[in-house]
Design brief:
By secondary structure, this protein is of the alpha+beta class. It has eight helices and eleven strands.
Length: 251
């Protein structure tokens, strides 16, 4: 269901934002926090399967994920879907539409999501009044480019087993850094169809590949998603190591 959602009233003040208390996110200055608080116009609660942004739309809003998982994707005319990346708390979506006039991809909620809503029309004032926040947006865009580079390398050159291991290790690392995964919670809420559409494999090939990883004791597959048992083992198969943890910005 494609929507141009209307934000609900603010329930979580920027001053009380839970992301601000996480070590992985850079702190705001007092002036920046005041600006972001005035920039926020409401919140959006998205159920799983809700299309938050649709390709070709001219959205009036930008969003920062406060909680939950989502994903970005494109669809060919015959309905084939390619998932481009997954979205976790702290990520901003809709920036592409603000710069390119319209969205070049769609965004769907994978789990229940809460998103902070910002008015696209006020984006220029962020760069004008707070260049530090403007640099943060540039950093977020550059990081997204780096992620897509790694995804393209994986799809183009890794074997099915290697690319599956990479995707699982990557998602686990993203979840840990966003504070939604850890030692006591290792569940990635994506179906085998989501994995197939990300990996560029058929659902049958994806099923067989994930079963090999489960047989090795690296993951435990469930009805809607899987539990990561051995993230280091997955990294070794993929020949991929996460970058050093670093403080990252968010808006």
């Amino acid at each position: 269901m494609a929507i141009e959602p209307s934000p609900s009233p603010i329930r979580v003040s920027c001053f009380e934002c839970p992301l601000r208390h996480m070590k992985r996110f850079r702190p705001f200055t007092e002036a920046e926090l005041e600006f972001v608080s005035s920039f926020k116009r409401g919140e959006l609660i998205a159920d799983p399967g809700t299309t938050v942004l649709v390709e070709g739309a001219r959205s009036a809003h930008l969003y920062t994920v406060l909680s939950g998982w989502g994903f970005r994707y494109k669809i060919l005319e015959d309905g084939r879907r390619q998932i481009l990346n997954y979205i976790v708390p702290g990520d901003m979506i809709g920036l592409q539409g603000a710069v390119m006039a319209e969205m070049q991809h769609s965004v769907e909620a994978l789990t229940p999501m809460t998103l902070c809503v910002f008015e696209r029309s006020r984006l220029f004032s962020l760069f004008e009044l707070h260049p530090g926040l403007g640099f943060d947006l540039t950093w977020l865009a550059a990081r997204e480019e780096c992620i897509l580079d790694e995804h393209l390398l994986s799809i183009g050159r890794r074997s099915a087993l290697e690319r599956s291991s990479y995707l699982l290790a990557f998602l686990f690392d993203r979840g840990v850094n966003a504070g939604i995964l850890g030692d006591n919670h290792r569940h990635i809420p994506a179906t085998q169809m989501h994995f197939a559409d990300t990996l560029g494999l058929s659902i049958v090939h994806t099923n067989k590949t994930l079963k090999k990883l489960a047989d090795r004791g690296l993951i435990r597959w469930r009805e809607r998603g899987c539990d990561i048992i051995d993230p280091v083992g997955l990294q070794e198969i993929a020949s991929w190591t996460p970058g050093d943890p670093r403080v990252r910005p968010f808006i």
